[in-house]
Write a structure and sequence with these properties.
The protein is an alpha/beta fold. It has one domain: P-loop containing nucleotide triphosphate hydrolases (Rossmann fold). The chain is 45% helix and 13% strand. It has helices at residues 15-26, 39-46, 53-69, 84-93, 106-114, 126-132, 151-162, and strands spanning 5-8, 30-32, 76-78, 98-103, 142-146. It has a 5-stranded parallel β-sheet with strand order 2-3-1-4-5, covered by helices on one side. The protein is globular and about 40 Å long.
Length: 166
Amino acid sequence: MTAPIVVMGVSGSGKSTVGAALAQRLRVPFADADDFHPPANIAKMTAGEPLDDADRHPWLEAIGDWLEERCGTGGVMSCSALKHRYRDQLRNHCPSLRFLHLSGTPEVIGARQASRPGHFMPASLLASQFDTLEPLTAAERGETIDVGQSIDSIVDEYVSRTGLEA
């Protein structure tokens, strides 16, 4: 494996859990994009305010730097990457970047969000996440997989579709 993978989707889709499981399966480093947010972004989301593109730009640059360092060796990053231009910004750091889009209905994702108390992204922002989401296009290197199955099944399906293995 030489290209890093971004596990993307709306808040509550399971990016961190699937990303960590995928990284373990592929035996590569894992990072969670939430850990790259500056304090101002966390404060804004905690207050129930969605981030704008100006808030996201430096955050995506920091994530891109992490991905760039792993462009020849691989790694897995969980990151919402909801818009094409956000994914383009990440690909500017590593053109071979791959994506795994975790897709689900607002009802399924909302139920998942409700089961994780204390997260800085409140459930009230879920609608804005779905409004912002631009699914992967055929031109992007990625797979879309439904979250309505076990973590192991999602990882198995992704590995099967891509032919990647540790």
